[in-house]
Amino acid sequence: MKKLFILFALATMAGEAWAQDPQFSQFYAAPLYHNPAFTGAAHKGRLVGNYRNQWPSIPGAFVTTSFSIDNYFKSYNSGFGLVATRDQAGSGGLSTTSLSLNYAYEINFSSQWNGRAGLAFGYSNRNVDFTKLTFRDQLNANFVPIPTSDPAQASYNRSQFFDISSGFLLYSRYVWVGTSVMHMNQPDQSLLGQTAKLPMRITLMAGAKIPLQKRMYGSDYGSKDVEKSISPSILYKRQGDFQQLDLGAYLTVKPLIVGMWYRGLPIANFKKGLYNQDALVWLLGFKHDFFSVGYSYDLTISKLGPGTAGSHEISISYEFDNPKRRKKKVSPIPCPKF
User: pLDDT of 186-203, one tens digit each?
Assistant: First the structure.
């Protein structure tokens, strides 16, 4: 299995690479990562942290960490934010560190509908530790390590690039729909001095919040009108030859949130034999006042099987507000905020 990840790491560095961006099962708990139009969408300050450990029983698996901070400035109808993400993959120490500056502008179309358009300007640093990889000319019958003459060992082991992303959201009190296009300039991410364009990641998202009681907004934890709602949601993403669909729902009985999703798109026709039935995802979340935390577990249903130990993901969010800000309520984006 270790050899499998070595081959994977090398494949992602080749000129015909079909690597994808890291993914989060709790996609609405990493809003700025998926769509820059979410920047400032909480209409207050917000800190978000996400951690994902994918297939932990496999040596050299995937670990992704992301942090974001954003705030809304009403006088400019704008949100500003910063996103930092680090992804580590494979036994070869393949890692990508990204930093993105986000901006979103909010438009009021009517008393019922609002829109948000966002931009993100990112910088990424990608590198690999070739000393952790075993090349073909190092294999011998005596199992004694020998130096390699493979040209990859002497090539660059670091890649740096800038990219540009955009997104849009349209929402009412109970419905939202959005799209984003990441890596619009398709930057070169090659580590071997060749050309390896990072494909655009196109994302479509939509959902609704369905109240399970007459009054939902304006209620507080511990009061008579505790929020009870169900939120069906969908996320479709495509990057290069790869495409996938997350389909499921959240059930909120404040302060608890539970959710379940299916991830995959088995009816799609892929090149290069990509298999696309990934996981069933369960989530348990807690939200109280301005603090929320969520834990999710992915049960692997692909050909990799249960031996991967699934995937574990944790999200933490904290919202803060200026006490001098006017108390007039604004229409929130109805997707879950944990």
Answer: 999 887 777 889 999 999
